[in-house]
Fold this sequence. Notes:
By secondary structure, the chain is an alpha+beta fold. It is built from two helices and eight strands, in the order αββαββββββ.
Amino acid sequence: xxxxxxxxxxxxxxxxxxxxxxxxxxxxxxxxxxxxxxxxxxxxxxxxxxxxxxxxxxxxxxxxxxxxxxxxxxxxxxxxxxxxxxxxxxxxxxxxxxxxxxxxxxxxxxxxxxxxxxxxxxxxxxxxxxxxxxxxxxx
Length: 139
């Protein structure tokens, strides 16, 4: 009888201790998830794609973090993440690829599938924006 009582008490202690450890592990996991969520609140992602000939040839696609809640303009992001040539807020070259009069080419810009109607210096990025620069011919 004493052996049975001893075994039951031992099992009770064993299970009691293991549940406490699981809670501690869950608390640590929840804390890490909370920290990650806070970091994600501070930074948002925009995607920049460069291509040629109406998207037939993708040159590069980058996901770029922008600070949440801060006014961020497209030209600033491009200057920080690419080698660009620009004049008066309009981009004419990206990473050594430039539009020119001889080839009748220019960098067409679309944001979220809509043609951009202002220069890069005047467009304020929003979290989740997809910016597409496509080197195209004009005729």
